[in-house]
Amino acid sequence: MNSIALNNLSTLKRRFILAIGILVGISTMVLANPIEDRARLTKEEAKELISMISEELELATYEPVLVFDEEGMFEEVQPLQIIKVYDNNDELLLEAPIRKLQQAKNKHLRKLLNASDFLTEYDNIKYYRLDL
Predict the structure, then answer these.
(1) Distance separating alpha carbons of residues 119 and 90, to the nearest angstrom
(2) Cα–Cα distance between 94 and 86 in angstroms, integer?
(3) Does the structure show a pLDDT above 60 at 5?
(4) What dihedral do alpha carbons 115, 120, 126, 128 form, nearest 10°?
(5) pLDDT tens, position by position, 39-94
(6) DSSP assignment string, 52-106
(7) Dihedral sign from CA coordinates of 16, 19, 20, 21
(8) How far apart are CA 121 and CA 21, in angstroms?
(9) Mean pLDDT computed over 87-112
(10) Distance between CA atoms of residues 76 and 99, nearest Å
């Protein structure tokens, strides 16, 4: 009698764990949200955002900063990071060298990057693709 009760309890535990796993799987499928069409940017919105970012970060007037190193040679100070955004045809839409942390927190830049897909990061250069 005792072994039957333990066997039933063991079976109930396994079924309970299986039921929880199935519930987690189903809820994940139901709650996973694909990117909605209204969350995507149109070409006009993307061009407007890129022009606003260029103005706010002053990309047209960007000049590399040169300093003397220990040997007396000129050395370029690298920006904190460089953000490159490409479109579907691999055309460069934006190249933004970020020199200050405040520039990285730019709301228009954040909006553009949130609408883009992160591809990779190499040597402080982050690559994104914007599906238009």
Answers:
(1) 12
(2) 7
(3) no
(4) -30
(5) 678 888 888 999 998 888 888 777 777 778 788 787 777 788 899 999 988 899 99
(6) HHHHHTT-TT---EEEE-TTS-EEEEPPSEEEEEE-TT--EEEEEEE-SHHHHT-
(7) positive
(8) 35
(9) 88
(10) 13
